[in-house]
Structures are given as structure tokens and as C-alpha cells.
Amino acid sequence: MNRILSAFLLIIGCFTFASLSFAQTPWSLQKCINHAFEHNLQIKQSDLGNDQADIGLLSAKGAFLPSINTSGSHGYNIGMTLDPFTNEFATDAIQSNSFGVSSGLTLYNGFRNHLNLKRAEIGLELAATNLERTQNDLILLISSAYLNVLFQEEFVNIATLNLDATKRQVDRMTKLVDAGAAPASNLLDVQAQQAADYATLISNENARFIAKLNLTQLLQLSPEEASTFEIVIPSDSDMESSSLPASASQAINHALNSFPEMRAASLNLEDANINLDLAKTGYLPRLFGSYNFGSGYSANRQIPVGEPTYDLAELGQLEDGTTVYYSGVTADLTPVIPLVPNYSEYEAISFSDQLSMNINQSIFFSLSIPVLNGFNTRAGVKQAEVGVLQSKYAQQSTKQALTQTIESAWADAIASQKNLLAQEAALSSAELAFANTKLKFESGAISALDYADSRTRLDNARVNMLRTRYDLLFKSKILDFYQGKAITLR
What we know:
It is a single chain. This protein is α+β, with helices and mostly antiparallel strands. Helix content is 62%, strand content 15%. It contains eleven helices and twelve strands. The strands form five sheets. Strands 1-4-5-12 form a four-stranded antiparallel sheet, covered by helices on one side. A hairpin with a 5-residue loop joins strand 8 (313-317) and strand 9. Helix 2 (29-39) packs across helix 4, helix 7 packs parallel to helix 8 (260-280) and helix 7 crosses helix 11 (448-482). The protein is elongated.
């Protein structure tokens, strides 16, 4: 019995721990944005652009350094061949080795390396602006999805309140019908309204679920995390829209001076100008210097071993025809004909000695002056000039599009602000009208259909007011964003 009880308690404990592990604190808007920055795939891909730009910058800096390469070989020469280290023909299989170090450096190429370095630095800045632009787009997406969840939450609350109110009317009408104070048709009408309200609640709950699903997908949450996902419900004061600027100029000035779209357009124009300068270097000469150091070993290179024997050198004949030989010097010690030494044994020079004996070095300079290359350089320059014009137009187009977007956002926000005042007045009137209709319905002065019509008008007024309120909230936050303010609900 104790074992069964212990096992049961263990199972209960495991389920409790699992539920606590999956439970999450509600997510604020800022928490959603921070999480998306860490886990969003588009952000990670944009961040890889920074890594690629760093690699490009390293490569551009490396172009200023000389190239250094080492080489080595080991082989056997078989058959008639010229030994490069003895300069003699060899017919036997001869082992040979060679080792070398070479270095080269571009001394002048029209400052092409400097231009490439500048271009790589611009590429690093462009990668940073692309990452910032991706982050900005994600902020707007997350904010819109977050506000949509809040919006749908409001609809669920309204539908719940309506269903509760209708349930009370059903209970009241049931008592009146049972007491014979009201016809049964009134009860049927109210029950029909209750069923409609319940269907509306289910529909709104489904819309809320879809809104949450969209947000959790943007956050890339796991199914377990998404199943317990809840957002922080801001207070009414937090949901107040920001005060709108008197004109769009403030937001436009800030965006044109600091937004990544404009910085990217300016950097692209600068990059196009550098590309033009690079194309023009095709007209300039190039000077290259190189240095080589090497040595080697050949088994065919030998030295004699032991004492030599000499062949006497014949000097000439005397007047009587006697042949005269000298041992290498005349009587007065003046050299005449050297003796030719003969060796019976030879041995190869050692590997280490040959490496020091066979050292060779060389320094070369090469100059290349372009004369004619099929108009390739001229065509490249013309294409680069077109690229500069394209970048200028793209910069102007980006400025124009950003200005128009902010102007439209400001105009939409002003219109939404005016619309909200009208919708609030309409809601106030609908609430007063419904309150009066409710009293008439409860006193039996009007039918359930009239009551339902009044409730429908009230619901429509609530929906229109909420939609306008959230529309204004989002548009005011967008204007804050264009003015350099963070989008928050605090």
C-alpha cells in the first residue's frame, strides 16, 4: 500500500513539475522584441552579413602584405639528363632535392588596394545598416501582432459580457413566462440572442487564438511555449496613444538623417564612386617586385677521396729531340703546366653541405603598362559611371519613399484621431440608447427583437471604437518610431 501511495505521489509530483516548467510569465511587448532579436532567423541571416563584411575587410588589409610561399621537391632523374647542380650530364638514377622560398609584393597598381580597403570598410557599414533595417522591420511586425492580440482580447471580453447579460435576460424571461407575465415567444427570441452571443464569443476566441499563433510564430516559440503563451495586458493609461506632432516634418527630418535606409543609400552611392575609381585604375601601370631564395641537393655532386696520382705534363722537346717533362714548376719555380690529378674514389657531398653551397637568390621587378585591351577598361569605366547614376537615383527614390511614408502615416494618424472622437461620441449615444431600450424591454414595452437591434447597434459602436482606438494607438507608435522613440507599452 505504501509503495502504491509513493508511486502515486511521484506521478503527481512529475505532472506538477512539468506544468510549472511549461508555465511562463506573461510577455510584455519589449520582451517579445528582445526575444525576436535573439531567435529570429532573418536577424541571424543579417548578422551573418556582418561576419562576411569582416572577412572582406581582413582580405582587403591582407592585400597590402607581401605573398610568401615555400616549396620543396624530392625526386630521381633516370636516363640522360642534365644535373642542374653539377651542370653535367648524368645517365644513372640520380636523387635530387630542391627547396625554396619566394615572395612577391605589388609596389604600385594605381592605389587599387587602398580603394578596395575603403570599399570593404563601406561594406562593413552597409552590413550594420542592413541588420538595423531588419531589426526595425521586425519591431513593426512584432508590435502590430502584439496589438492585434490585445485587440482580439478586447473583442473576447465584449462577447463575454454580452453573453453574461443575455443569460441574465434568459433567466429573467424564463421566470416571466413561467409566471404567465410574458409570452413564450419573447423567451424564444432571447434564447436565440443567447445562441448568437455564444457563437460570437467562439468566433472571437478563435480570432484571438489565430492572433496569438501569429505572434508566437514571429517569436519562433516551441509548441510547448506557445501553448502557455500569454501577453501582459496594459492598463488604460498605458494604452493611451502618444500625442501627435503638429506636422510630419519632425519625424521626416529625423528619419532622413538617421534611418538605416538613408544611410544605406548614401553608402551605396559612396561605394559606386569608389567602384568608378577602381575601374579607372585599369588605365594605370602596375609595378610588381619578387624575391626568390633557394637551394638543393644532388647525389651526382661528388668530391674525390684519398691521395691523387698525377700525370706528368709534357712541356716540349729540346734541340736534340729529347722530350722534357716537368713536375709542375720550372727550375726558377715559375708555374708552367699544372699536373692533372687522378683520383680512384669519389663520394657525394653531404646533404647539409650542399644546401649551403647551392644557395641561389634572385630579385625581379616587372612593370606592366596597359596599351590596348579590347576597350575592356573603357567599358568598365562607362559601366561604373552608370552605376554611380543608378545609386544617385536610388538615394533620391529612398528619400522620396520614406518622406511619403511618414507623411501618409501622419495624415492617417490625424484622421484616426478625429475618427476616434466621432466613434467615442457614437458609442456614448449607443450606450444611452441601449440603456433606455433595456428598461423598456424589461418593462415589456418593446419586443425582444427591438432589444436585439439596439444591442447590435451598441456592439457595432463598441467594435468601431475599439478598432479606431487601436488603429490610432498603432499609428501614433509608428510616428514615435520615425521620430527615434522606442515602441513600448509601459
